[in-house]
């Protein structure tokens, strides 16, 4: 039962991961980023998600350092994720990219490392590198991002270690039902990026109506819907009040009918690239 901010899901390798975390996509290096990470940790967040391509790992590392001190907790109490970018997919390249991320974050290990996109012909060798890092205990868990079913099947044909996570675009306009069902069967935890559809859903009438019933914002309704769908969620914000508000979703529960109504908003609509047809 997801009933508090520190509630965790147990990944298929036994590692525990918080259901709710802070994402920092499109947050530039600087005091705003450092303060956002520090604020989140101070207010009970225990999961921080970044990526090499976000070009903000140094600020995230600084925010983590300040946040741990302010909250009076240890590094082991925090779950930190980063991702290897497309240009660094390949065995040696991925090993080097990981060390660069670790150095920028100023950490001794990562809790989770992900392949950011399934670049054909490259992600298999990157996965071998990640398995090496995992066996060396430099990463507690390894996974993927933006993988479709056929990418996962292809990866697992020769993988020694099964991915623990598939982080994908997921929100009420893109419910990814088949992919989520497959991941559940394979014991791969689904994680949502862009859960609020980059703000495009905040004025949706169905969500506003449900929010009014519980005296909650549209964002809180969506985050609660994610969690009740068994999806790990990392909403982004740099504003203190919003960071706190996004985590205030454990004092209400959506009914089955409300869950269904929100799911029916699906239009298979993406705000990000299609993993089967992207060019970067």
From TrEMBL:
Q: Where is this site: Lowers pKa of active site Tyr?
A: 83
Q: Which residues does substrate bind?
A: 116
Q: Which GO terms describe its molecular function?
A: oxidoreductase activity
InterPro entries in UniProt: AKR, AKR5G, Aldo/ket_reductase_CS, NAD(P)_OxRdtase_dom_sf, NADP_OxRdtase_dom
Say yes or no: keyword Oxidoreductase present: yes
Please state every residue range assigned to the domain named NADP-dependent oxidoreductase: 21-266
Active site annotated at which positions?
54
CDD domains referenced in this protein's UniProt entry, alphabetically = AKR_AKR5G1-3
Ordered alphabetically, the record's keywords are: Oxidoreductase
SUPFAM superfamilies with a match to the protein in the record: NAD(P)-linked oxidoreductase
Please report the name of this protein according to its UniProt entry.
Answer: Aldo/keto reductase
Its ancestry begins with:
Bacteria, Bacillati, Bacillota, Bacilli, Bacillales
């Amino acid at each position: 039962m997801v009933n508090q901010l520190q509630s965790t899901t147990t990944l298929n390798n036994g590692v525990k991961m918080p259901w709710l975390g802070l994402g920092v996509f499109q947050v530039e290096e600087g005091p705003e980023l450092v303060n956002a990470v520090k604020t989140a940790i101070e207010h009970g967040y225990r999961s921080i998600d970044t990526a090499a391509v976000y070009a903000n790992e140094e600020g995230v590392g600084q925010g983590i350092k300040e946040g741990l001190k302010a909250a009076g907790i240890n590094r082991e109490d925090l779950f930190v994720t980063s991702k290897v970018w497309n240009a660094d997919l390949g065995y040696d390249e991925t090993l080097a990219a990981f060390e660069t991320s670790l150095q920028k974050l100023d950490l001794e290990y990562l809790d989770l490392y992900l392949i950011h996109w399934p670049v054909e012909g490259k992600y298999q060798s990157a996965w071998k590198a990640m398995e090496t890092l995992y066996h060396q205990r430099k990463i507690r868990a390894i996974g993927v991002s933006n993988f479709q079913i056929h990418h996962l099947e292809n990866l697992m044909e020769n993988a020694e270690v099964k991915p623990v996570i598939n982080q994908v675009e997921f929100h009420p306009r893109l419910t990814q039902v088949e992919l989520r069902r497959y991941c559940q069967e394979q014991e791969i935890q689904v994680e949502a990026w862009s859960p609020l559809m980059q703000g495009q859903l905040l004025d949706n009438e169905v969500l506003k109506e449900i929010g009014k019933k519980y005296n909650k914002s549209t964002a809180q309704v969506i985050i609660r819907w994610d969690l009740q769908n068994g999806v790990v969620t990392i909403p982004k914000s740099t504003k203190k009040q919003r960071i706190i508000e996004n985590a205030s979703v454990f004092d209400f529960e959506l009914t089955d009918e409300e869950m269904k109504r929100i799911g029916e908003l699906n239009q298979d609509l993406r705000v990000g690239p299609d993993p089967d047809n992207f060019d970067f």
